[in-house]
Structures are given as structure tokens and as C-alpha cells.
Task: structure prediction
Amino acid sequence: MLHPNARELLSERFALDDDEFAIAVLDGLSRPQKTLPCRFFYDSRGSELFEEITRLPEYYPTRTETAILETHAAEMADGVPDGGVLVEFGSGSSIKTEILLGELPRLGGYVAIDVSQSALGGAKQRLVSRFPTLDVRPVIGDFSHPVALPADLAGRHKTGFFPGSTIGNLTPAAAQRLLRVFRALLSPGGRLIVGVDLKKDARKLVLAYNDSAGVTAAFNLNLLARINREVGGSFDLDAFRHEAIYNPRDGRIEMHLVSRRDQDVAVAGRRFRFRTGETIHTENSYKYSVRQFQDVARAAGWTPARVWADANDLFSVHELITR
Ligand code: SAH
Ligand code: AVI
Result:
């Protein structure tokens, strides 16, 4: 939601209608608990840093979900009819997608939706060389606004793919709304395969978001570099530190950027005051039990079907169907 003052705060040098990032930054920094939406992590540097995160020893979600997909890809693919379309939300590098695509030789098309142009471009190049007959359609956009699918594919049977536990970056209420949007987009007869990180020991969670090599810290701080570059900010990156905490009440990891000192920062010609220890809340990553996630899916109109998990119950992949 736009802060009432955000548009006023925005200086004239930014086009109001298309500078969504500038508006969101001014809105978020104007709140009592400063906040920035996590979808803005993914400029080209942020997308590269995220790929580095996926290879970290502490970041168990990617390798665990990949192993689940490798074991069960044929079952996941068995509901996709010949000529059907696979629609991926937040596709990033599409590396996990290759596992499903290997089981779908007669797919009618692959629609990859992401806000990161650089990630989409790299993924398309790789997919086209590995699957020369596959019709790859990148769509740059925010999956939470109804995205228009390419017109010639819109009438086909559609299977959604939403891996990575990206759904965990939304509150449960927003996740429910998003699942409803996806249901409408994928209907009639739509199906969704969605990866969801599971609740577990808080220490393991905190390490996954606070790695020893400092890659997650760089990913978090890159948001300030992006503001400096794209919205005319004066953030000193050394004056903030990365923090990841587990909030047991809400069942979520929270990432923050903590001000190391009292300071003023200019953004788009406006000044924002930070006290020592004050934070910008940059991301939530909710963790679910299988039951909790199925309840959210049901409330969004889906029928939960199969669930696949690893032997240690670190990560789950859900099949949701429409009846
Ligand atoms: N699916 C990949 C990438 C997950 S990272 C995997 O499982 O590894 C999250 C991805 O979602 C990033 O590529 C990011 O650019 C994209 N993303 C985040 N919020 C988005 C939004 N609102 N709309 C579209 N893409 C989004
Ligand atoms: C994309 N998303 C599910 C990741 C997560 O685990 O919440 C983003 C991330 N943030 C820090 N590390 C990874």
C-alpha cells in the first residue's frame, strides 16, 4: 500500500507512473518501522548474489528442493497434457525448471515470469540450447499483479510452477491472495506445483540467512546500492549491517539492515533520519508446516493433492489442483 505522503515526497525528476521503485522506497522509508519490498533485491547484481546464495553450504533450501524435484519429477509431470503450458512464477535462472522440462518432451510452451530481466535473459539462452524445440516465453513483470500470458498460449491447459519458497516471502494473508490470482490465471483445470520451506530448528534457519561468507549480507546491502544508483540515494553501505533473526511468533525469518550510527540519508532529494540500531526491514521468509500451507491453499480455493518432502523434513513441494 502506498504511504499517503509517498507521491508528495517524490521529487519531480522521477516519472510518477513508471517509477515504482522510487515510490516504494520513499513510502517504505517514511514508515515508523522502515521497510523495503524484497522484490527489489533482484537487479542484475542481486540476481547474481541470489545464485551465489543457492550454492552456500548453509542455504539448504535450494539443494533440498532440487533433490526432491529430481526424485519426483516424473510424478510432477504426469498431470501435464501434451501441448500444455508450464507457467513459472519468479523463475530466476530456471535451473530447477530443467528437471521438470526433462520429463516434458511434448510441452506446448514454457512461460517464465520474473521481475529480473537479466535472470530471464540468461535463463532463455541456456534453455534454448538444452531444449532446442522448446517454445520459451520470458515475461518481465510482477507476478502479484495479474500478468497477461502470451495470447497464443492463453487457451492451453496450464500448470503453474512456483519453486524456491518464494511464496514464503509474502505474509500468509498475501500468499492466500496470490494463490487466488494464480488459480484464476491457470484455470480452467489448472494445477500448481509450489515449493514451501518447512518449520525447523531456529539455529539452522538463522545460519541459512547469515552465512559465514557474507553473501546474504551483500545481497541485503545491495538494495541500498540500488537505491543510490536508481533513486539518487546517499546511503553509506559501511554504515549499515545485515541482520537475520527468527521471529518464532510469526514463524518467519526477518532480514533487516541495521544502522550502525545516528545518521541522515538523502533519497530523491529527501532526508531520512536513522538512529543507532534502527533497522530497515527488508524481507520476511515464512516457514510453514505441511498442514499450515495446505490451509492457506484451501482458503485460496485450491485442493491440496500430493506433497513431496525430503527425509529430514526440511522442505516440501505441494501439488495443488482445481476441482
Ligand atoms: N525460482 C528460483 C528463484 C527464486 S529467487 C529458485 O527457486 O531458485 C526469487 C525469484 O523471484 C527472483 O528471480 C526474483 O527476481 C523473482 N521475484 C521476486 N518477487 C517477484 C515478483 N513480485 N514478481 C516477479 N518475480 C519476482
Ligand atoms: C527467494 N526467497 C525464497 C529467498 C528466501 O529464502 O527467502 C530469498 C533469500 N533471502 C535471503 N536468502 C535467500
Notes: Confidence is low (pLDDT under 50) at residues 1-17. The chain is about 35% helix and 25% strand. The first strand starts at residue 34 and ends at 35.
